[in-house]
């Protein structure tokens, strides 16, 4: 069965520092992988997605993620975090009609 | 394009009452999805529609949950005889048919249900 694990419940980084959020998945075939961000009172917004091809995916707001099949991982990165990046981040796997989300990682940004 | 909207944004109800939530998708989107999100968890898929056809409903949480999309536009999610365990955020998303460019799911702000 497909599943997603986000090992870090909460991460705190200083503004300007780099960020990496971890995501590990279990999926029977080539996975469809997504990262979403959720700010309080807002709907989930898609940051980036991977279906096939280049394993380094660029997204919006300066985010990127790398698909590593050998490690079953799809970690999200940003070289320099801004205070406005504070939010909840969700990794998801699966086809559109059967998406499974991780439990999320809450990001706090220190000034 | 005003995005996906959901109504109401908050609902407080007493246990045993029925509640209905509405979702208005992006107008050209023929796919519509419902999810539930409990505190500290990611969204959990419930059901989805392709136009007016409900193509998956086996993951609705119980037979107290039902959803409709009668004209292929807006959708409603109804919970009958609510229980305290139904307290959660109910999210709606819409998309183009998968396989089309720009077929990602766009989420609404959710309806937060509190059952007292």
What order do the helices and strands come in, and which of them pair?
The complex is a heterodimer of chains A (111) and B (116).
Chain A lengths: L2 E3 L4 E5 L4 E3 L2 E3 L6 E6 L6 E6 L5 E3 L5 E5 L4 E6 L8 E7 L6 E2 L3 E6 L1
Parallel strand pairs in A: 2-12
Antiparallel strand pairs in A: 1-4, 3-9, 5-6, 5-10, 7-8, 8-9, 10-11, 10-12
Chain B lengths: L4 E3 L2 E4 L5 E6 L6 E7 L6 E7 L2 E4 L8 E4 L6 E5 L8 E8 L10 E2 L3 E5 L1
Parallel strand pairs in B: 2-11
Antiparallel strand pairs in B: 1-3, 3-8, 4-5, 4-9, 5-6, 7-8, 9-10, 9-11
Give an overview of the whole structure.
The complex is a heterodimer of chains A (111) and B (116). By secondary structure, chain A is mainly β. Chain A contains no helices and twelve strands. The mean pLDDT of chain A is 93. Chain B is an all-beta fold and 116 residues long. Chains A and B meet through strand 6 and strand 11 of A and strand 5, strand 9 and strand 10 of B.
Q: Outline of this structure?
A:
By secondary structure, chain A is mainly β. Chain A has strands at residues 3-5, 10-14, 19-21, 24-26, 33-38, 45-50, 56-58, 64-68, 73-78, 87-93, 100-101, 105-110. The radius of gyration of chain A is 13 Å and the shape is globular.
Please tell me what the overall shape of chain A is: globular
SS content category of chain B: mainly beta
* Low-pLDDT segments, ≥5 res of chain A: none
The helix/strand order of chain B is EEEEEEEEEEE
Count of alpha/pi helices of chain B: 0
* Average pLDDT taken over every residue of chain A: 93
Task: Report the C-alpha radius of gyration of chain A, rounded.
Answer: 13 Å
């Amino acid at each position: 069965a497909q599943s997603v694990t986000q090992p870090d419940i909460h991460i705190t980084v200083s503004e300007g520092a780099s960020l990496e959020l971890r995501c590990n998945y279990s999926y029977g075939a080539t996975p469809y992988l997504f990262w979403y961000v959720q700010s309080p009172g807002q709907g989930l917004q898609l940051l980036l997605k991977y279906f096939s091809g280049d394993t380094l995916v660029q997204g919006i707001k300066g985010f990127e993620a790398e698909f590593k099949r050998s490690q079953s991982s799809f970690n999200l990165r940003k070289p320099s975090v801004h205070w406005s990046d504070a939010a909840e981040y969700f990794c998801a796997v699966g086809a559109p009609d059967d998406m499974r989300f991780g439990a999320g990682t809450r990001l706090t940004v220190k000034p | 394009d005003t995005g996906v909207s959901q109504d109401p944004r908050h609902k407080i109800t007493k246990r045993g009452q029925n509640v209905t939530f509405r979702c208005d998708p992006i107008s050209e989107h023929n796919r519509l999805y419902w999810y539930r999100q409990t505190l500290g968890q990611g969204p959990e898929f419930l059901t989805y529609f392709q136009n007016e056809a409900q193509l998956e409903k086996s993951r609705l949480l119980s037979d107290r949950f039902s959803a409709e999309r009668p004209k292929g536009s807006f959708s409603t999610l109804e919970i009958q005889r609510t229980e305290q365990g139904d307290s959660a955020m109910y999210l709606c998303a819409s998309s183009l048919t998968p396989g089309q460019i720009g077929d990602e799911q766009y989420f609404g702000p959710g309806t937060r249900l509190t059952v007292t």
